[in-house]
Design a protein that fits this description.
This protein is α+β, with helices and mostly antiparallel strands and 223 residues long. The protein is built from eight helices and four strands, in the order H-H-H-E-E-E-H-H-H-E-H-H. It has a single domain (10-218), classed as BirA Bifunctional Protein, domain 2.
């Protein structure tokens, strides 16, 4: 695997400054910097990751388009929020399943934010119908679930009781209460700017892949 630097420390400098100056006037003056240190490196990284992602799963997508692809928009949706700050202060990339392209579809995720970088994979806050399918797969395939559940990241985002229709005495009753099925690994800022980052990110995705495979197949999708 060819080693190359995609991101530089400037991405963290920019995000820190954006957090302090989260307004349209400042962003307009610094948009060229945003394109140079965020957008261009991110799209290059997505493009370079694509063949490695295909080896993990040919049904996941690394889309290097500037819009409506793997790179999330920097603009916040403030229509229904009391927080009217116009911009996100992190960079997000979603390597989604071909059958679903929103943030709640199964896939891998890369989060870049000063002091809070991480790689994740699985299903984040899916709708109730999707949750029911995952929970049903856990009940019907306990041995398969047992092999992958250890990859789950600890979560307080869960129901207080076992959901209706599922056995409260099931060996994995606590897992049935979960609202998300996600594995994540923390990254240091220096790792993101390292020439080995593509290799390291691919390695972490491979480790998370069994959990993602279980959840994807539980939805009736090919992994």
């Amino acid at each position: 695997m060819a080693e190359s630097n995609f991101f530089t420390p400037e991405v963290f400098v920019f995000l820190k400054q954006l957090k302090r100056n989260n307004d349209r006037e400042w962003f307009a003056k610094n948009k060229a910097r945003y394109e140079e240190c965020v957008v261009q490196p991110a799209l290059a990284f997505i493009n370079a990751f694509a063949p490695h992602l295909e080896e993990i799963s040919p049904n996941l997508v690394a889309d290097a388009r500037a819009t409506r692809g793997s790179l999330f928009r920097i603009y916040r949706d403030t229509r229904f929020s009391h927080d009217k700050r116009p911009y996100k202060t992190h960079v997000g990339m979603h390597f989604f399943h071909a059958k679903g392209t929103d943030a709640h579809a199964p896939g891998f995720y890369l989060h870049i934010e000063p002091g809070q970088c991480f790689v994740a994979g699985g299903l984040w806050h899916p709708d109730n119908a999707t949750l029911t399918k995952i929970r049903s797969a856990i009940v019907s395939q306990p041995e398969a679930w047992k092999k992958v559940r250890g990859k789950l990241s600890p979560s307080s985002d869960q129901l207080k009781k076992t959901p209706r229709g599922f056995p409260p005495d099931h060996p994995f009753a606590e897992d049935l209460k979960l609202k998300s099925f996600v594995a994540s690994v923390t990254l240091k800022d220096a790792q993101v700017c390292n020439g080995r980052f593509l290799r390291d990110f691919t390695s972490q995705c491979r480790k998370i892949a069994p959990l993602l495979e279980f959840t994807t197949q539980a939805l009736g999708l090919k992994f």
